[in-house]
């Protein structure tokens, strides 16, 4: 029986650019770095108030490049105040790619694009 989700892996072409995005835009922290037995660079990012991590992986040179299809997958993060979050990331040079959009549940959602084309959903839950 499955006990819990431990991490989600995303493959990228430029690991340092991707890690920098998550550190700067979302203020995630690098938990650890390693090189896999096959030579892939791996970085695990800690997510606030959660045991789950995000694993970022860059295969060794010569591997086929990553080509993320639109709407293939996304990560979703809860934010306390979407307007304040948006203002803070804009000061850092990032911008929303979609939203903010009110939902039928009373929450508000928005998106920001990470490197490689992965989408990040930001959710301010209804109060």
Q: Which characteristics define this entry?
A:
2 helices; alpha/beta; 2,3-Dihydroxybiphenyl 1,2-Dioxygenase, domain 1; four-stranded mixed beta sheet; single chain; globular; 2 domains; 8 strands; 127 residues
Question: What does this protein structure show overall?
Answer:
By secondary structure, this protein is an alpha/beta fold. It has two domains: 1-61, 2,3-Dihydroxybiphenyl 1,2-Dioxygenase, domain 1 (Roll); 69-127, 2,3-Dihydroxybiphenyl 1,2-Dioxygenase, domain 1. 17% of the residues lie in helices and 36% in strands. The protein has two helices and eight strands, in the order βαββββαβββ. It has helices at 15-25, 82-91, and strands at residues 7-11, 29-35, 41-46, 53-58, 74-78, 98-102, 108-113, 119-124. The strands form two sheets. The protein has a four-stranded mixed sheet with strand order 1-4-3-2, with helices on one face. The protein has a four-stranded mixed sheet with strand order 5-8-7-6, with no helix packed on it. Strand 6 and strand 7 (108-113) form a beta hairpin. The radius of gyration is 16 Å and the shape is globular.
